[in-house]
């Protein structure tokens, strides 16, 4: 029996801007066979609070098995490795 691969994705979707890196990260995860637990950051305040809590400067942020992988470029390197 194979284990389901899951990832948690936090990405920014504001009324006037959808982050293309978040869209890219979600597509990469799904293409790699991950079930994506997606969390939408829908306001600038939510984005700022998330970044402060996790000590990061950008979104999206991807977590796999509870470990922060990083943003979409970091995810691409992770999946290639």
Order of helices and strands: EEHEHEEH
Q: What's the Cα radius of gyration?
A: 12 Å
Question: Which structural class matches the secondary elements?
Answer: alpha+beta
Q: CATH superfamily, please? A: Glutaredoxin
Q: Can you name the CATH architecture?
A: 3-Layer(aba) Sandwich
CA-CA gap between termini = 24 Å
Walkthrough of the structure:
The chain is of the alpha+beta class and 81 residues long. It has a single domain, classed as 3-Layer(aba) Sandwich (Glutaredoxin). The chain has helices at residues 20-31, 44-54, 72-80; strands at 5-14, 17-18, 34-41, 61-64, 67-70. 40% of the residues lie in helices and 35% in strands. Strands 1, 2, 3, 4 and 5 form a 5-stranded mixed beta sheet that branches.
Task: Describe the structure using short key phrases.
5 strands, alpha+beta, Glutaredoxin, 81 residues, 5-stranded mixed beta sheet
Summarize the structure.
The chain contains three helices and five strands. With 81 residues, it is an alpha+beta fold.
């Amino acid at each position: 029996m194979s284990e389901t691969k899951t990832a948690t994705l936090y990405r920014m979707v504001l009324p006037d801007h959808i982050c293309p890196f978040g869209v890219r990260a979600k597509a990469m995860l799904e293409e790699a066979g991950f079930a994506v637990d997606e969390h939408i950051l829908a306001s600038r305040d939510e984005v700022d609070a998330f970044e402060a809590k996790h000590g990061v400067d950008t979104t999206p942020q991807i977590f796999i098995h509870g470990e922060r992988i990083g943003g979409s470029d970091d995810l691409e390197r992770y999946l290639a490795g």
